[in-house]
Records
---
Amino acid sequence: MAKKIALITGGLGGIGREICIQMGQAGYTVVSTFMRPGRDERWLADMKEMGIEAYCYKCDVSDFDACQELFAAINRDVGTVSILVNNAGITKDGTLRKMTPDQWHDVINTNLYSVFNTSKCCIEGMMNQGFGRIINVSSVNGQKGQFGQSNYSAAKAGVHGFTMSLAQEVARKGVTVNTISPGYTATEMVMAIQESIREQIIADIPVGRLGRPDEIAALVVFLAGEQAGFITGANIAINGGQQMQ
Ligand code: CAA
């Protein structure tokens, strides 16, 4: 059977890279997008060394036209995407009093509009195949809010509204749509928080530590599989107990 193709947006970053590795090791062909130049060649070499068939495209996922070009290239070079992991995301933290309109728009565009853009470009292909998985990476802060993150929390909460609606539209076509909501995970993004604030956040996590990217990736691999076909429209928390519902 042909290998299924998984697109992971932002697959060169902290959590995304680990998702790519575990998806590759699980037998998928891996495609990633990236924004910051200079890291793609290293990433491709690393994947190759691990025996993973991988492709990488520069794409601003907040731009719909760029996403259309991305999918045209993937369809031409690789094939039809069966698994979409909307992982790309940014933070531009600040209290609302200090937040600029640019900080608001950048975060909403990258973290929420992108989910529309990429899903729109691959939903027909998934429905025609009778199989698809869309996994949207939200955040504990989309569930509980966070001081200094009105932009990020709004985008991440919005992601799950999108998940629940699209899940209903495509359920009969073998396509599932789910949200995962990681808590604070040991990545560059979290290490950028001022140390004293980060230490306080960690102290409030019942498990007593940051999450590991490989723990998040394992959940993605499970949701991508055939066995997860009865899970749709869910928002799965993976946060060390920081937020319980
Ligand atoms: N609750 C209540 N009050 C708080 C507070 C909190 N959590 N944090 C700070 N304050 C208070 C301060 O004590 C200070 O009070 P005074 O003015 O009375 O002294 C005031 O708020 C500071 O307000 P400022 O607007 O000046 O805030 P700042 O510029 O100093 O810092 C911030 C704002 C940069 C957003 C900082 O609060 C911060 O870094 N917060 C953490 C944000 C965070 O968790 N980001 C997560 C990034 S990782 C990620 O997002 C991944 C994921 O999905 C989990």
---
Amino acid sequence: MIKNKSLVSITDFTKDEILRILELAADFEKNPHQPLLQGHIIASLFFEPSTRTRLSFETAMNRLGARVIGFSDVNATSTTKGETLKDTIKMVSNYADLIVMRHPLEGAARYASEQSRVPVVNAGDGANQHPSQTLLDMYSMMKTQGHLDHLKIAMVGDMKYGRTVHSLIQAMADFEPTFYFVSPDELKMPDEYKEFLDHRGIKYEEHKDMNAVLNEADILYMTRVQKERFADLMEYERVKNTYVLRNEMLANTKDNLKILHPLPRVNEISEDVDANPKAYYFQQAENGMYTRMAIIAAIMGVK
Ligand code: CP
């Protein structure tokens, strides 16, 4: 039962619940005008910058007919006066029927869900999890590949700090994928995620050269090097441009290949890729709106 459940980690939802969200997202894509939440109030609390996640969540809330309260600039809140996250969440959960929250600290969303009287949806907590992104990524894979089973998924860039790849490998583990993790040594996939995959018997390879895996992949999941997570900016400068996907590199890739990126991109996908039919990152961002309508509607119990 998804109703009244918080979505903090993607592992909070079962495989069946994930598939139900994808089914609902398809329904909302066919008919986005379903004002099922008139009379409800949803809080959108962004303690960390966002473009897509916040705007697609708030568009989803508006399309569902809910009213939206919240903030996108933490400097305009009483956090700057020293108010704790606990007190902020206790207040807001008296005002709203659902809280969507992004926070720079890993574990903040779980803590918020423990303090809140209403369900909390994690819109990204530090380098930890980004479960709504995972659901829209899976919806994008389902739409473009026709299924989720046995996909070969190449993830390129920041495996260490990229919360989207951490959530995605956990959810896709139910569908027997093969993963190729491509990163410099400094940004390798953390051991805890590799141990998770070992435990589940999921195949993965680690590479430094993107060209070694490009022609194998069904999905190429490019990521930004997460500058804001580096303690040492000199290290960021050393690794920031390690991978740049250019159109000519796609010449011998599979016909069904789709290029995903949670966005924002910095330099890791050259703009000459945008016109290639294999580029799917802008449609992926649009899919986020339907997927977030599905998440909200399911948790609020109106679907
Ligand atoms: N994909 C994603 O989380 O983008 P934003 O940071 O713009 O929300």
